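Shapes recur. One chain:

:::
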Amino acid sequence: MTPVKAALLSFAMLSAIVLGGFGIYSADAASDHNVVDGYGVTGAR
């Protein structure tokens, strides 16, 4: 793998992690929406 491809892959992976985290955070910030992660764990109180 060339350094350019590795850099692009790393950038894409980090972007996906950040966007996923932001999506979970914004869903958690919504007052009437329960957050569910991929394992079936909810943020219900």
Notes: Residues 8 and 14 are 10 Å apart (CA to CA). The radius of gyration is 15 Å.
